[in-house]
């Protein structure tokens, strides 16, 4: 019996010479959802379902992640900010868009707003990465070369197929407070050397992207758009948890934005509290009452 090929949701667009997986749903003003380190389009499923009645929801996989082809170059902050703009261009959205960035992608979303001020309608940072004074130790080229070598060695040993889907599920469980079944695409999408290399490179370049953002802020002011910072809180009372909330609050103050807490929620807020993320997006334009889910 011939097995039917799995239907890929969305479309593959060639953007900046790289075949990127892009999924568009709903209607209305455009809203881009971008996940954290190593994440894929399906991590936003619950949020996209809530926003689609009100927004044109755009999800894309960064190079090497999800269903996107790899990039020959290591990621940089400027390249990722431009990638958001080029994805919007490829879809014909030339006007302003709301950009939602989770974790590492919070760097990308803020950089997009600063580098493309006329393209940004609003900014939502979901438990975004915060680095007040990043100081990378090694030269970027050295760290990137080391990471690429590590990824190649692990791939040659068969690690992606044997362990990467399991590692992905364990990370997901550690980053949530609720119980969430594995996504059907999780196993198929996280067992390749392509994804392993992308994850390793995103981790390796994290401190450099953080430093790029700190250097960008003085020369590229944030446009006068609404900003929301949504912090995850799982109910813990230890110093680390409370310090994280304060750092998120300080980020909101620095960006002149609104601060809110999603609770109970782990770092993967989009899984634990999708209603809070959708509400943060819709509240930017005063449409919070239109959200599909009630306020907590």
In short:
This protein is 43% helix and 16% strand.
Q: Can you describe what's shown?
A:
There is one protein chain. This protein is of the alpha/beta class and 296 residues long. The chain is built from 10 helices and 8 strands. It has helices at residues 45-51, 77-90, 105-115, 140-156, 159-174, 184-189, 193-216, 239-255, 269-272, 274-283; strands at 11-15, 18-26, 30-34, 56-60, 97-102, 120-126, 227-232, 258-262. An 8-stranded mixed beta sheet has the order 1-2-4-3-5-6-7-8, sandwiched between helices. Helix 3 (105-115) links the parallel strand 5 (97-102) and strand 6. Helix 1 (45-51) packs across helix 10, helix 2 (77-90) crosses helix 3 and helix 3 (105-115) packs across helix 7 (193-216). The longest helix is centred in the last third of the chain and has 24 residues, at 193-216. The radius of gyration is 18 Å and the shape is globular. It starts with 10 loop residues before the first strand and ends in a 13-residue tail after the last helix.
Give me the secondary-structure topology:
Blueprint: E1 11-15, E2 18-26, E3 30-34, H1 45-51, E4 56-60, H2 77-90, E5 97-102, H3 105-115, E6 120-126, H4 140-156, H5 159-174, H6 184-189, H7 193-216, E7 227-232, H8 239-255, E8 258-262, H9 269-272, H10 274-283
Parallel strand pairs: 3-4, 3-5, 5-6, 6-7, 7-8
Antiparallel strand pairs: 1-2, 2-4
Helix pairs in contact: 1-10, 2-3, 3-7, 4-7
Shape verdict: globular
The H-and-E topology, N to C, reads as EEEHEHEHEHHHHEHEHH
Distance between the termini: 50 Å
The biggest beta sheet is recorded as: 8 strands, mixed
Helical content, roughly?
Answer: 40-55%
How many beta strands in the DSSP annotation? 8
The largest sheet has its strands arranged as: 1-2-4-3-5-6-7-8
Strand proportion, as a percent range, falls in: 15-25%
How many helices in DSSP terms? 10
Give Rg in angstroms.
Answer: 18 Å
User: What structural class is derived from the secondary structure elements?
Assistant: alpha/beta
What is the arithmetic mean of pLDDT? 91
- Low-confidence region ranges: 1-5, 287-296
